[in-house]
Specification:
Length: 41
């Protein structure tokens, strides 16, 4: 049971890390796009 629990929490951690890095990347690209739009004006 302990092994199953640790593997589940590991999976959740990996999932959370993926989601977190994805949202950070999206925020960075969004910020970059905003900066580029400002430069065009």
């Amino acid at each position: 049971l302990k092994i199953a629990l640790s593997s589940i929490s590991n999976g959740a951690l990996v999932c959370f890390t993926c989601v977190a890095s994805n949202s950070i990347l999206k925020r960075q690209t969004f910020a970059l796009n905003m900066t580029n739009e400002e430069k065009k004006k």
